[in-house]
Amino acid sequence: MKKQALITGASQGIGYEFAKLFAADKYDLVLVARDEARLGEVARELGRLYGVKAKVLSKDLALPGAAREIFDELEREEINVSALVNNAGFGVQGAFVEVALERHRALMEVNMNALVELTRLFLPQMLAQGEGRILNVASTAAFQPGPFAALYYASKAFVYSFSCALAEELTGSGVTVTTLCPGMTRSQFHARAGLKRADGLLMMDADAVAKIGYRALMRGKPIVIAGWLNKVGASVAKALPTPWTAKVAGRLNSAVRK
Ligand SMILES: NC(=O)c1ccc[n+]([C@@H]2O[C@H](COP(=O)([O-])OP(=O)(O)OC[C@H]3O[C@@H](n4cnc5c(N)ncnc54)[C@H](OP(=O)(O)O)[C@@H]3O)[C@@H](O)[C@H]2O)c1
Q: Of all atoms in ligand 1, which is nearest to the CA of residue 62?
């Protein structure tokens, strides 16, 4: 039987690059995001290039219950997911009090709740089979507080802590959990978060970031930070007092606001 990989946020950016890597390894795919037309294009492209089947599931993960709908639909079709990539996510820039509560709620649903729910729903099948791979996309934002993007940074700290703990809990079960921490990556992420176009030394391409995550996932590594400059940055952030790193991150975040 062919292996199946479920990837959230597969319509573009890092998630699309993950879809290509799984397809090249002959996984059939379940592609999740909101943009159904774009997901259809991705499914056709990867089917043509790699001869894999790709199922499109257009879902808004900000809506409570979306994870359960995905699970139920795949269960009905007897699609057994052996790799789960929780990649969908977005950022919100601005003073906490100025951002609408509804926007904060959507961020928590997509970046944290959907990731936890999908993991909880698909994990029992993986454990029953004695194998499975889960990749959760955090960020180098996990390593310090981020004033003017406070909830985004906090959501990534949550993903990092939750995923690392789960990786340890599952030791010896055959199921691995890998946390990928990208730094700044070229994609639609910054424009969508209301940030100025950023570029420079720290910026990585989405395909390079996905390759780093994919390799770590296939090796069952618990944590991977993308790129050596980001590794250095993360070590410095972890070593310094938290109020200092919050101050620096706040200054940087103010500077990149549109
Ligand atoms: N780019 C960076 O600098 C950077 C750095 C660190 C971490 N990350 C993380 O990497 C992950 C991927 O980001 P990216 O850079 O590839 O950004 P991106 O190009 O904006 O892609 C985000 C993906 O998530 C999907 N998505 C967003 N909201 C969704 C929702 N409500 N329901 C379902 N799908 C949704 C989008 O699809 P639709 O719009 O079609 O729904 C899209 O496929 C995110 O978790 C992000 O936090 C990014």
A: 31
pLDDT band at 255 (very low <50, low <70, confident <90, very high): confident
Asked whether residue 107 carries a pLDDT value surpassing 80, the answer given is: yes
Collapsing DSSP to helix, strand or coil, 257 comes out as strand
Number of domains in the chain: 1
Q: Which among 157, 61, 77 is positioned nearest to 109, based on CA atoms?
A: 61
Q: Measured in angstroms, how far is the CA atom of residue 161 from the centroid of ligand 1?
A: 20
- What is the reported pTM? 0.97
Q: How far is CA 21 from the centre of its chain?
A: 15
Say if CB 148 and CB 105 are below 8 A apart. Answer: no
Residue 97: give the domain boundaries: 4-255
CATH code, 217: 3.40.50.720
- Collapsed DSSP state (helix, strand, coil) of residue 126: helix
Residue 215 has pLDDT above 70, yes or no: yes
d(CA 244, CA 80): 46
- Whether 214 sits among the annotated catalytic residues: the reply is no
The partner residues of 178 in beta bridges, in order of sequence, read: 135
Look up residue 44 and give its amino acid. Answer: R
> Judging by beta carbons within 10 Å of its beta carbon (0-12, 13-18, 19+), is residue 201 exposed, middle or buried?
exposed
